[in-house]
Amino acid sequence: YAVAPIYESPQTRDPEEETFKHGNIILGANQWPEAPKPNDLAAKVTRLYSWAESDYASALKLDPTNAETYLNMSHVQRQQGKVGQADGYRNKSLELLNKAIRADNSDSESYHKRADIFEELGEFALATADSEKVLSLSTSDTQISTMRNKIEIEYIKRSLVKSKVNIGISP
Question: What is the pLDDT of residue 29?
Fold first, then answer.
């Protein structure tokens, strides 16, 4: 069995196929004799990362000042095991975010992205400071709630690092 989307409508449940239909999308376990083998799946994932890397490289040629694109390229390369290159792109993203913040210290999005990078680097005090800045600049209730949760998680991580406990917590 494999999970495969089937496009139909309306909302129904077909007990024989063990699927759940909602609108034009159906999710569930369907018999799928041509389910990809693990090696085929790995090759497809590798190809997708390669395409993403190529797309981000093209995007950076078009706009070499986009910090988010550098950060995304960093994540793609890290997934491919290119740690050295990934660190370079992350550092470039951090450099651009620092410039953006110096140019406009009321840009909450730049602080938010920089907080994510600091968290990734294990710099929880800096991540918390940027998250608190986002909170002070924010007008959206959803963003305020999200940032409060993020700050709480960063405080927990910081206290765990101080006590030399190493666990992963994702917001």
Answer: 44
